[in-house]
Design goal:
The structure holds 2 protein chains of 2 kinds.
Chain A (H helix, E strand, L loop, with lengths): L4 H10 L6 H18 L34 H5 L5 E2 L2 E2 L7
Antiparallel strand pairs in A: 1-2
Chain B lengths: L8 H9 L5 H14 L6 E4 L1 H16 L10 E5 L26 H8 L3 E6 L39 H8 L5 E6 L5 H7 L2 E4 L19 E6 L2 H11 L29 E5 L9 H16 L3 E5 L7 H16 L17 H12 L2 H14 L4 H22 L5 E5 L15 H5 L6 H6 L3 E8 L5 E8 L4 H15 L15
Helix pairs in contact in B: 2-3, 5-6, 9-11, 9-12
Chain lengths: 95, 496
Amino acid sequence: MSLTRDDVKKVARLSRLRMDDQQLDELAPKLNGILGFIEQLSEVDTDNVEPLSNVARSTLPLRDDVINDGECRDAVLANAPESEEGFFAVPKVVE
Amino acid sequence: MTDLTNLTIASALNGLKNKEFSATELTNAHITAMENARDLNAFIVETPEIALKQAEVADVRYANGTALPLDGVPIGMKDLFCTKDTQTTAASHILEGFVPQYESTVSGKLWDAGCTMLGKLNLDEFAMGSANTTSHFGNVINPWKDQTNPNIDLVPGGSSGGSSAAVAARLCLGATGTDTGGSIRQPAAFTGTCGIKPTYGRCSRWGIVAFASSLDQAGAFARTVEDCALMLNTMCGHDAKDSTSSKQEVPDFTKALEGDLKGKKIGIPKEYRVDGMPEEIEKMWQQGMDWLKDQGAEIVDVSLPHTKYALPTYYIIAPAECSSNLARYDGIRYGQRVEGEDLTDLYELTRAQGFGEEVQRRIMIGTYVLSAGYYDAYYIKAQKVRRLITQDFENAFEQVDALLTPTAPSSAFAIGENDDDPIKMYLNDVFTVPTSLAGLPGMSVPAGLDSKGLPLGLQVIGKAWDEETVLNVARNIERAANFTAKPQILGVSKAA
């Protein structure tokens, strides 16, 4: 299984990474190298094996359903590239 | 005149207690060392004014007998830990200028214990790398030189390369690191320092810039095993702000150091004898076994049959989590923004210009293995193999108390040497990645020098929550190895 340039372009789009043709051409063989490497896993017999997603060795705890944070709007906005009247500012998204 | 930068944390604490020098003198000596060694590029930001302010308060506490556990100890903070009011970048252009409004739990605990912050340490961008060659702020240079070729610059390992270089060159007494697949242990091995990654869940991840959340774990660098134990005592502990942080009781790790290894069984995993491993590393490993035998341990051959699948498993799971975690860098809420014609344009341009090549590569791999049609074949498959790898360790630990392996398959290499081939770079972590996938504690301790005069490390791997045995075995190696060699570049400062 090997990625074509169009596949790479699609993945770049999904990743929200702008790439020009030259970058796509350079990236395709590198990604295929990595995919070839991880392809090895297909030889492992994993029938009846449960996927492991968490090695924390504990169940996720529940906390009391109470407000324990907030009133920090200015701190939240402090690093925003652009903010207006207490909100993050973005380019127009609705015509 | 004593060189204050050559002390251990333990001896510095003694000296401070006995009023042989002040915290301000100790911190000043390290500030001078840090400035002398700027060529190493270990720090992204130096914060001498913060360190001196903290030292001043520490001195007051020493004067009135209320000193804290690590009072006045100058350390470096990996620039992956958010520090309130001090720029935190993860060595990425996309976070350049980001000034956290809050403190990470682990860094906060260290300041609360009296440590002084010399600055923020360089790393691979978003902790993705094994050589500290992917930082937006430039490569970190290893203070050690190849004796057969002293003119070339070597890598300090990665991703915590600033941490390892700074501790080795005596720019700080200790440093924080984070380890996702070996990012503490491999740089420790490359620089002749001690580095420990505790069990997943020991240290809170809150306020640490996330790379792969099911693997990321904070840990410590220092020049002795005891110093690592001292730092862990402060860094570990439950934090309600991290849902994977454990409520497991934190012991006094320094109590685990003494004592030989009578009755202990140490496993040697046969799968770690990889093709092409330098003979010197093989010999060092054998030497390690002999040292442990001399201390009363029984050496037992064990098998971790899925070891060869650990790297491919890691290079599915880590990029998958990375692509999700890094989705937050959108140019809207924080970090750099590149304006575009519309919102999508803004996202794509911001991320393309903000992330470096290796980070983009991993986001792409992660996006691909998580995308519709490939999710089961790659991501679920990798999670299944991850369980098999974890079970291998569980089986081995039914027979033994700890495992001994080399930390890395080579000593430090030249900057640029493995840059052209990502797979070759990934192979550096062949001995450290399995431990990370299983969430187990691992430590690298310097064992000796190779024929180039470069340090080699041995890795001790323990059961979950059994850092104490790891530290005890590492302390026995340290005592036997008596590693006193110093790197060629030192930040030396003869104050006091």
